[in-house]
Design brief:
Length: 79
């Protein structure tokens, strides 16, 4: 039983590192705010992380329309 728990923990940590790292690369170093994979991963993030990521991208891409998930109530401004 302990071996199963250990394997599940390793798989979960690996998934968090893999998907979290890909999301961070999209937010912090992506060439475009319209990367489909990045937008999808950003949509799965908890609200505080999503707000941080959208704020970071707004600083990096001033004057561009926000990607899906980062748009404010009017759909044209950042959240």
């Amino acid at each position: 039983m302990q071996k199963i728990v250990q394997v599940v923990c390793v798989v979960l940590v690996g998934a968090v590192v893999m998907f979290g790292g890909r999301w961070y690369m999209y937010v912090a170093q992506g060439e475009s705010p319209y990367d489909e994979v990045g937008i999808a991963l950003n949509g799965y993030m908890p609200a505080p992380l999503r707000r941080w990521g959208c704020g970071k991208m707004e600083q990096r891409f001033p004057g561009k329309l926000p990607p899906y998930g980062c748009a404010g109530p009017d759909g044209r401004g950042w959240m």
